[in-house]
Specification:
single chain, 77 residues, mainly alpha, two-stranded antiparallel ribbon, 8% strand, rod-shaped
Length: 77
């Protein structure tokens, strides 16, 4: 949506200065920017959740395997 200059909007091969936008267009641009930020935050949260699930799954599997080894080992008399 925006190029290197935060004040210029670019769509396709055409650039628009905020000074040339109507209030409604500025509002739409503001909404798009905020939604992009929300998407970025949610993507990071999803990455954190996925990593946490993988961590706890690994810990559970290791614990269950350790338990299975203890049950399978011969008991010393």
């Amino acid at each position: 949506m925006a190029d290197g200059n935060k004040n210029v909007l670019t769509f396709g091969d055409k650039s628009y200065s905020p000074d040339d936008l109507t209030e409604e267009q500025k509002y739409f641009a503001s909404q798009i920017q905020e939604l992009q930020e929300q998407r970025q935050l949610r993507h990071r949260a999803l990455d954190q959740t996925t990593a946490s699930i993988e961590f706890f799954t690994g810990r559970l599997i290791a614990s269950l395997q350790q338990e299975d080894k203890q049950e399978d080992s011969p008991v010393a008399n």
